[in-house]
Structures are given as structure tokens and as C-alpha cells.
Amino acid sequence: MAVYVDNGRWPYRGMLMSHMVADTLGELHAMADTIGIARRWYQSNASVPHYDICQAKRAKALQAGAQPVDRRGFVEVARRVREAVKAGTWG
């Protein structure tokens, strides 16, 4: 099981943002807690449950053990998570 951060750099309010996803909801929230992301930023209704994180938080996540993924890797993880959500086995 793992937490993943993509290498995206999407502008938002003067910051560059990336996505953080995980194999399980527990892992995702635990990493958010570790790097200081408030639960209110959790995007449960997105196509893939995730957090958007700024580059400073991305660096903290990587230091805490998150795995970096490129676009292709993110798509692969997102597909697995969507399937697990749909099957009711993610959470």
C-alpha cells in the first residue's frame, strides 16, 4: 500500500498544485495529517478521491514516504482507486 503524488504543477491562487492519492483512504488521510493538510481540503466527490497539495507540501509528502508518479503513473493509480471505490473496497 502506498501514497502517491503526481508531478503536476497546476496554478491555483498563486501556488502550483499537485495531486495526492493513495491505495487506501486511511493512508491518504494519515499522510495529509503528517504533512499538515486540513481534512476540509479532501476532495471526496472528485473522479478520484484526493487532496490537491502545493509544492512545499508535495516535498514534505515525498520526505514522509510518498511515491512520485508521472502522468502515466497517476492515471494507473487513479484507475485502481476508481475501481476500488466502485467495488466498495476502498475506504
List keywords for this structure.
91 residues, alpha+beta, 6-stranded mixed sheet
Helix fraction by DSSP (H/I, runs of at least 4)? 40-55%
The helix tally amounts to 3
Derived from helix and strand composition plus strand pairing, the structural class reads alpha+beta
Multimerization state = single chain
The helix/strand series, from N terminus to C terminus, equals: EEEHEEHEH
* Strand element count: 6
Shape: globular
**Any low-confidence stretches, pLDDT <50, length ≥5?**
none
Main beta sheet: 6 strands, mixed
Average pLDDT, all residues: 94
Proportion of residues in β-strands:
25-35%
Q: For the terminal residues, how far apart are their CA atoms?
A: 13 Å
Précis, in short:
With 91 residues, the protein is of the alpha+beta class. The protein is 41% helix and 27% strand. The chain has one domain (3-87).
Characterise this structure.
The protein is α+β, with helices and mostly antiparallel strands and 91 residues long. The chain has one domain. The chain is built from three helices and six strands, in the order βββαββαβα. It has helices at 25-35, 55-63, 71-87; strands spanning 3-6, 10-12, 15-22, 42-43, 50-54, 67-69. Strands 1, 2, 3, 4, 5 and 6 form a six-stranded mixed beta sheet that branches. Strand 4 and strand 5 (50-54) form a beta hairpin. The longest helix is centred in the last third of the chain and has 17 residues, at 71-87. 30% of the residues are buried.
